[in-house]
Every structure is written in structure tokens, then in C-alpha cells.
Amino acid sequence: SPKNPFFPPKLLPPEQRMVLVACGPFTPSDSVAFEPLSDLLEVVARDRPDVCVLFGPFLDAKHEQVESCQLLSPFSDVFHLCLRTIIEGTRSAGSQLVLVPSLRDVSHDFVYPQPPFPFPDLPKEDKARVLLVPEPCTLDID
User: Fold this and answer.
1) Residues 6+ apart with CB under 8 A from 33
2) DSSP assigned state of 133
3) CATH fold for domain 19-132
4) Domain-wise residue ranges, the chain
5) How far apart are CA 19 and CA 127, in angstroms?
């Protein structure tokens, strides 16, 4: 059988890992309150997964308040508040956090392939556990 050149065989069996995967949007359709995101962060705090992979959209271009320009803050401010909420909300669980953009993220490049989210003010204590990846990407967990 042909060998897979991308993934070398593991010599030791991997440890069991808990991976939580969630897809946006993380707001209800009638407001930009992030209640679904808050519920998700409670699950992360309770279950303490090793890895959380979150797919956008984080601020959905198809949200009615975005489409009708009813937001009181710029898109980038709402988006950064959302990212800060996610990063701070997963800090105590110690989960490795992977953030994947969506073509419907209103504050990000809607080209394909998508570059990772820019987040230059990522807190220093979170840089080792927060991974901003492009879409598409390949993740090797463990």
C-alpha cells in the first residue's frame, strides 16, 4: 500500500483528547447579543476540553442588523469584542483555542483561501494557546 507522505506514523499511541468544535454564527438572529457564545463558553469552562475549534462567522454578514447597518459600533470593534470574550472565556479552562474564519465574517477578507484573522493585540499570556488559522487549513491534533 502507498505511504502517506504528509503524516508520519506515530510510534506511541496518542493520549485521548477532548476536542470541542462549534460553528458560528454565535448570535441570535434578532440581536447582536452573544448569548449562544456565552452558553458555549460555559460548556468550555465546565468540560475543560483540550482543544476548542471555533469556526466563524463570528459577526455574520447575513445578520439582519449588519445588513441594515443598525449596529452602533464599527464591525471591527464588535468582532474584536467577540474574540476577546472567547479568549478570556476559555483562559481558565486552559483549552488550546483554534479560530477559523468564514467567508461570512463581515470584518474579514472574503477571498478564498482566507488568511487568518489579524489580532495584533492578542494578550501575551494567550499567545501559546490561541491559534489563528487560515481557511482552509489542516490541523494535526496530538
Assistant:
1) 27
2) -
3) Purple Acid Phosphatase; chain A, domain 2 (3.60.21)
4) 19-132
5) 19
Give pLDDT tens digits for 45-80.
999 999 999 998 887 777 666 666 766 777 778 788
Model confidence, pTM: 0.82
Query: Does position 3 have pLDDT exceeding 60, yes or no?
Result: no
Mean predicted lDDT score pLDDT of the chain: 83
- Identify the three-state secondary structure at position 4: coil
- Laid out side by side, the sheet with 130-132 consists of 19-23, 51-55, 96-100, 130-132
Using the predicted structure, report yes or no on whether residue 106 has a pLDDT greater than 70: yes
Three-state SS string over 30-99 comes to: CCCCCHHHHHHHHHHHHHCCCEEEEECCCCECCCHHHHCCCCCCCHHHHHHHHHHHHHHHHHCCCCEEEE
